[in-house]
Amino acid sequence: TCSGIVPMRIREDRISIEDFGGVGDGVTLNTNAFRKAIYRIEHLNRTGGTILYIPPGEYLTGPFNLTSHMTLYLARDAVIKATVDTKNWPLIAPLPSYGRGRERPGGRYMSFIHGDGLYDVIITGENGTIDGQGDVWWNMWRQRTLEFTRPNIVELMNSKSIIISNVTFKNSPFWNIHPVYCSDVVVNYVTILAPADSPNTDGIDPDSSSNVCIEDSYISTGDDLVAVKSGWDQYGISYNRPSQGITIRRLTGSSPFAGIAVGSETSGGVADVIAEHINLSNMGIGIHLKTNIGRGGVIRNISISNVYMYKARKGIKISGDVGDHPDENYDRNALPVLKDVVIKDVSGDFVQQPGLIHGLKKAPFSGICLSNVSLGGDSGWQCSDVSGGAVRVSPLPCAELTSSQQ
Fold it and tell me: Where are the transmembrane segments (predicted)?
């Protein structure tokens, strides 16, 4: 386990949302109760921090900001439910590494649970639920009536020492858990749920973040289960903050898109990613490394192993022509670099196509090693524009492959 990078803190001071007028009837709007409670935690600043306890019940609320040295603790059968009145969602500035909202130009809607510049924050409990009630947002996306980019369920920015554990997340309007510009983040024992046709409901997206541990979780959503990102085209290149030191372990899930993904927004670079002991079912793509012209950035030292997939459209895809652009000002000469990738001990049943590797002529992939990959036979592989010849699927350990086999 890597979860020890952030210790679970025992906090002596505890308050309840009911102390601030919170009503768990599923109807009363509790936005002011949450804001008052968190204001109290911030300004009393008790030694060791404070627990905000959410008792059983359904607590309807608008979005709210967390503060440092706090634990948001959901009791069993506690539900924090997002209001469906989109007028209650404030706009915030776009991320500097994206230059605009990810879906629409301009700003973006604040995440349901948000924080910026925080330290020592825990979201946990007895497997209570945080419900984004995303259906209204999905319909706006489908009908093309969105004015600004949809909100995440949880986004923490510029923060350190974060634990998200033993909570169920469901029906996020957009991405579920989005640590961006963060370090020392643990996400474990979470369940993340959204319908398979819900648009862009990524499970966990570490973004320009370091020392991130994702373990022992179940994710079933409408988009990538875990996607490692680091900024979008010229904005990500300028911001220049990589994602590095990302560990993903003992993850189970299903999605019409990817199980383990890197990209496509990789402009700040991605390094030192380990994913292992992954079980996937009913997938679009099991493993997807994706980038594009204009991204720039270096993707390196990616290790993925011990993966089993059942029913997948494609087992492994490594591609340099995926993803859109923020505007027309991206640099056509900013080519990504992808190197030193090891994918081994991968098996599956009912996989329609084992894999596809589509490189870039002017920025070829290098050092890609596929070892002990059993996804229906080598004949189903498609490779193009890969430097030094085709990629070989080999039963040999990667260290024993000759240069012609890499």
Answer: none
